[in-house]
């Protein structure tokens, strides 16, 4: 399957999941479980990095096409090395540790990232700043970005992932109810 056909197929699949123009979407992606088109690449470190970025761009382009200029994409950019190993958190440089798509998205121009050393979320689009900026110090709960999800009718999209592996919003609800 060529890239153009695969792009149209992915856009169609996302739209069939009731996601459309103007939506605010929290998306988690496992690139290894997506049916991606074949793309030629050089067998080298640079070639592998390049193809990884091309695949991430392929998925992101489809997502951006579906939500349009009036939509917003939110992607988890969690990093656990701060808590596990005591590594310092640098808001601009600390990479996402939840897959290549989230790291690709984090580094893309125009993306903003919520300020949290473990549970940051990156976003782009019309509502990204309203959801991700001026938040409290907790990753979950009343002053977190997750608390604002209901106000913006955020939809959840999991590409290549089962629901049970990627719904941090559930932890937010647990936090609110003292579970």
Low-confidence stretches: none
Largest sheet, strands/sense/barrel = 5 strands, mixed
Sheet/helix structural class: alpha/beta
Task: Kindly provide the radius of gyration, computed on alpha-carbon positions and rounded to a whole number of angstroms.
Answer: 16 Å
- Strand order of the biggest β-sheet: 3-4-2-1-5
Q: Give the overall pLDDT as a whole number.
A: 91
Helix content: 25-40%
Number of helices: 7
Percent of residues in β-strands: 5-15%
Give the ordered list of helices and strands. Answer: HEHEHHEEHHEH
Span of the ends, CA to CA? 47 Å
Report the strand count.
5
Shape: globular
Characterization of this structure:
The chain has 179 residues and is α/β, with parallel strands linked by helices. It is built from 7 helices and 5 strands. It has a 5-stranded mixed sheet with strand order 3-4-2-1-5. α1 crosses α2. The chain is globular. The termini are far apart.
Secondary-structure blueprint:
Blueprint (H helix, E strand, L loop, with lengths): L2 H14 L7 E6 L15 H23 L4 E5 L4 H5 L14 H8 L4 E2 L7 E5 L2 H5 L12 H4 L6 E5 L8 H9 L3
Parallel strand pairs: 1-2, 1-5
Antiparallel strand pairs: 2-4, 3-4
Helix pairs in contact: 1-2, 2-4
């Amino acid at each position: 399957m060529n890239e153009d056909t695969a792009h149209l197929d992915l856009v169609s699949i996302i739209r069939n999941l009731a996601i459309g123009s103007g939506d605010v979407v929290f998306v988690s992606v496992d690139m290894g479980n997506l049916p991606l088109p074949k793309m030629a690449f050089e067998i080298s470190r640079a070639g592998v990095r390049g193809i990884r970025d091309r695949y991430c761009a392929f998925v992101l382009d489809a997502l951006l096409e579906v939500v349009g200029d009036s939509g917003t994409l939110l992607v988890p950019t969690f990093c656990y090395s701060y808590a596990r190993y005591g590594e310092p958190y640098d808001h601009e440089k600390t990479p996402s540790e939840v897959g290549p798509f989230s790291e690709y998205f984090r580094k893309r121009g125009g993306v903003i990232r919520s300020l949290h050393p473990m549970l940051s979320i990156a976003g782009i689009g019309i509502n990204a700043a309203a959801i991700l900026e001026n938040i409290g110090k907790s990753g979950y709960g009343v002053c977190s970005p997750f608390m604002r999800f209901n106000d913006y009718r955020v939809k959840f999209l999991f590409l290549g992932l089962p629901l049970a592996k990627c719904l941090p919003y559930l932890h937010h609800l647990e936090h609110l109810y003292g579970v």
